[in-house]
Amino acid sequence: MEALEELRKQLDEIDDQLVKLYEDRMRICALVGKYKIKNGRKVMDRQREREKLQDVESKVSLEYNKKGIRKLYKQLMSMSRRLQYRQFAQAFLCVNIFGRKRG
């Protein structure tokens, strides 16, 4: 069995990767938000979210992990929506204050 410190080091390395991936994901979500603003799309896409949850759940084997991945992705999607709602609010303010879309 590996020493506790070695296991924690492995977890730290995974956490570093997760942080980078989260920031990458949010950067792309911001681009999605810009697309939605430009093309008159809504932030919330319930069908897309249902499909994404089903997809990620299908990729894990243990039932406990399915519940965990579902919770994780619900939180990720919530953070993505918050970012996009903030973008929509800023775009709305720019249109109302300056008479033009920002971006």
Describe the model.
The structure is a single chain. With 103 residues, this protein is mainly alpha-helical. It is built from three helices and no strands. The mean pLDDT is 92.
Quick take:
This protein has 3 helices and no strands. By secondary structure, the chain is mainly α.
List the helices and strands and how they pair.
Elements: H1 4-38, H2 46-58, H3 63-98
Helix pairs in contact: 1-3, 2-3
Average pLDDT for all residues: 92
Which bin fits the share of residues in helices?
over 70%
Tally of DSSP β-strands: 0
How do the helices and strands follow one another from N- to C-terminus? HHH
Shape type: elongated
Please describe the biggest sheet, giving its number of strands, its sense, and whether it closes into a barrel: none
Q: Classify the beta-strand content into a percent band.
A: under 5%
Distance between the termini: 54 Å
Main features:
single chain, mainly alpha, 3 helices, elongated
